[in-house]
Amino acid sequence: MQFFLDWFRNNLLDVLTFLTGVCLTLAVLVLVTSNISRSRKSAIFLMEIFSALIMTSIRITHVYEGVPGTFAYWMAWIFKFFDMFFTACAIFSINLYVKDLFKYSVDGEKNVPVLSRVVDELLIADFAILLVLMLSGNLYPLDETNHYIRTSWRYVTYVMPLISIVLIVVSIFVYRKRLRTMNFVLLLVVLFGVLGASVLQFFTPGLPVGSVTTVDMAILLYVFEIFNLGRAVERAHRLEIEMMAKYQKELEITVDERTRDLKVANEKAERLLLNILPEPVAKELTEHPDKTISQKYPNATVLFTDIVGFTKMSGGMSAEETVKMLNGMTSLFDERAEREGIEKIKTIGDAYMAVSGLTEDFENDGAEKMIRFARGLLEDVEKFNGTSKYKVQIRVGLNSGNLVAGVIGKTKFIYDVWGDTVNVASRMESSGEPMRIHVSESVYEQTRASFKFQGPIPVELKGKGLKNGYFVAE
Question: What share of the chain is helix, strand, coil (3-state, %, to 5)?
Answer without folding.
Answer: 65, 15, 20
